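Look over this today:
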Amino acid sequence: MTTASIVQRVWNYCNTLRDDGVSYGDYVEQLTYLLFLKMADEYSKES
């Protein structure tokens, strides 16, 4: 996965949340939480 594809995916999530009426601060919080969960999942698979 390239950096450009990751950035595009994040923007797609942002657009989806914005279109559902979620405010900027709220979707930044949600995306941060999703990234944290993804990192935790990947870290647990390495052990």
About this structure: Residues 3-46 form one domain.
